[in-house]
Design a protein that fits this description.
2 domains, pyridoxal phosphate, about 450 residues, Aspartate Aminotransferase, domain 2, alpha/beta, 7-stranded mixed β-sheet, about 35% helix, 4-stranded antiparallel β-sheet, cysteine desulfurase activity, Aspartate Aminotransferase, domain 1
């Protein structure tokens, strides 16, 4: 746990400040290293966050003291490992406002979304019995996504549509990248069975109006699937308040280890879905002819699970809770405003996404006139500034914005205003270095 911040509870949420963020940095040893002879300025948390010492110490502590298979043995190590594993589920479920049996461990959010689409595909093939028929799709049914989606919340639905004969539709964005909510009511129809959408755009950092889309889906009886990869790490998220049916999230973006993510689903829905992977630990009985399956979450957790990683993720959410998600969100909003304002004032820089007034986390995508984003990224790296370049697994969105790729800077709780200033100073020198705009 972090010992850097006071534990007193404020009546009103207040953002972190530079002094507090600087103290938090001491919990992240990698942030103390240098890159190309320059102190590291890490502004790529949208891709993967850095980890506090307590997270990897938790994994090591598990392996050194409790390592055993869970749900399988009667010996002390197996019982202790199972207790840690399931307590980790409880802690992560509580963090997002879910019940224990509503959180399924996956390798990442991509697997979580594929779990859903393959389970629905199995139902469409007649598997899972009568209770699974509610998830079956076929010709005449519609799946709706948005033009904002990360490929992980687009391609699995494309494939499901191809396998079942359903039609895939999408809600477009305008020229600035804002979701066309004025068209959503025409696109979501009584034939819509699934509405899948991101909570926060991984490219633009814009926060989507989840209640409006959930209400629209409810009005036609469609299931809702939320991509929470960029919201769960940065905003207070409660799945019950959001009223979504499913939500995917990924541990490595929220201070947790790689190789661990989760799928939230309403318990009644998960228990009715056919399994995705089959094998050991997810059955009640097996004969040579057939098998019967356990309820959620074990129904979807075949084989040896990510035990140490789950413990690491639970440690990460404890760290985030101690700092305060409301304070983290408020701090990132301030850092984001500083980035957007600063970048917008640099000649030749175009900031992507809606203008002032749009709700955003601390993420700023931009392009520099006459300089390819990969060249921008390499120049910034020479100054010790780590950012993401490319299409960020969102080619359709970039195409809608009239660009092929972009540079993205993204913040987290350990960033300071000096990190933002380092970015801005480096960006201001890019065009001169490449001899553009003289």
């Amino acid at each position: 746990m972090s010992s850097a911040l006071p534990t007193t509870q404020d009546t009103l949420p207040r953002p972190l400040n530079d002094a507090e963020a600087s103290r938090l940095r001491a919990d992240f040893p990698i942030l103390g290293r240098s890159v190309n002879g320059t102190p590291l300025t890490y502004l790529d948390s949208g891709a993967t966050s850095q980890k506090p010492t307590c997270v990897y110490e938790a994994e090591q502590h598990f392996y050194e003291n409790f390592n055993a298979a869970v749900h399988r043995g009667a010996h002390s190590l197996a019982v202790e490992a199972t207790d840690i594993f399931e307590q980790s589920r409880t802690d992560v479920a509580r963090f997002i406002g879910a019940k224990d049996n509503e959180v399924i461990w996956t390798s990442n959010a991509t697997e979580a979304l594929n779990l859903l689409t393959y389970s629905f595909g199995n139902a469409s093939a007649g598997l899972g019995g009568e209770t699974a028929r509610a998830f079956a799709l076929g010709p005449g049914d519609e799946i709706v996504v948005t033009e904002l989606e990360h490929h992980a919340n687009l391609i699995p639905w494309q494939e499901l549509a191809l396998r079942t004969g359903a039609t895939l539709k999408y809600i477009p964005v305008d020229e600035a990248g804002a979701l066309r909510m004025d068209l959503a009511e025409q696109i979501v129809t009584p034939a819509t069975r699934i509405l899948a959408f991101t909570h926060v755009s991984n490219v633009l950092g814009t926060v989507i109006d989840v209640p409006a889309l959930v209400a629209l889906a409810r009005s036609v009886g469609a299931l809702t699937v939320l991509d929470g990869c960029q919201s769960v790490p940065h905003l207070p998220v409660n799945v019950k308040d959001l009223s979504v049916d499913f939500m995917a999230f990924s541990g490595h973006k929220m201070l947790g280890p790689t190789g661990i993510g989760g799928l939230y689903g309403r318990a009644a829905l998960l228990d009715a879905m056919p399994p995705f992977l089959t094998g050991g630990s997810m059955i009640t009985s097996v004969t040579m002819e057939k098998a019967e399956y356990l309820p959620s979450p074990m129904r979807f957790e075949a084989g040896t699970q990510r035990i140490a990683q789950a413990h690491g993720l639970a440690t990460a959410v404890s760290y985030l809770s101690e700092v305060g998600m409301d304070r983290i969100a408020a701090w990132e909003e301030l850092l984001g405003e500083r980035m957007l304002t600063g970048l917008g004032s640099i000649p030749g820089v175009r900031v992507l996404g809606p203008g002032p007034g749009a709700a955003r986390i601390g993420t700023a995508p931009f392009i520099i006139e006459g300089v390819h984003p990969h060249d921008v990224g390499q120049f910034l790296d020479s100054r010790g500034v780590a950012v993401r370049v490319g299409h960020h697994c969102a080619q359709p969105l970039h195409r809608a914005l009239g660009v092929v790729s972009s540079t993205r800077a993204s913040t987290y709780l350990y960033n300071t205003t000096s990190d933002i200033d380092a970015l801005l100073n480096a960006v201001a020198d890019v065009r001169g270095y490449f001899g553009v705009g003289k």
